[in-house]
Amino acid sequence: MARTDWLWKVFLPEGSDRDHGAANVSGPNAEDLSGLDYPDTLVFVGGFDALNDWQKRPEPRDVQCYILRLEI
């Protein structure tokens, strides 16, 4: 977790947290995207991805989401 925290710290503008729009596109500071028509989606999740659990839980929407998990 410390590595992930460091990655966010160097990526986000100083003083920002993970609710910044670049990090959390559906968070409390995000624009309302509910009216957009999203296409069906295919998500690839790598076995060593640090955010593996996050990517495996798509938000409920009227979009079909397929998840392909790759393990080596």
Percentage beta strand: 15-25%
What spatial form do the alpha-carbon principal axes imply?
flat
Structural class: alpha+beta
Biggest beta sheet summary: 2 strands, parallel
Supply the number of helical segments: 2
Low-confidence regions: none
Q: Determine the fraction of residues in helical runs and give it as a percent range.
A: 10-25%
Amino- and carboxy-terminal Cα gap: 22 Å
Number of strands: 2
Work out the radius of gyration.
Answer: 14 Å
Question: Mind explaining what this structure looks like?
Answer:
The protein is an alpha+beta fold and 72 residues long. It has 2 domains: 1-33, no CATH class; 37-72, no CATH class. It is 19% helix and 17% strand. The protein has 2 helices and 2 strands. The protein has helices spanning 2-11, 52-55; strands at residues 41-46, 65-70. The longest helix has 10 residues, at 2-11. The model has no long low-confidence stretch (mean pLDDT 79).
How are the elements arranged and paired?
Blueprint: H1 2-11, E1 41-46, H2 52-55, E2 65-70
Parallel strand pairs: 1-2
Organism: Trifolium pratense (Red clover)
Domain Alpha/beta hydrolase fold-3: 3-57
GO molecular function, one term: hydrolase activity
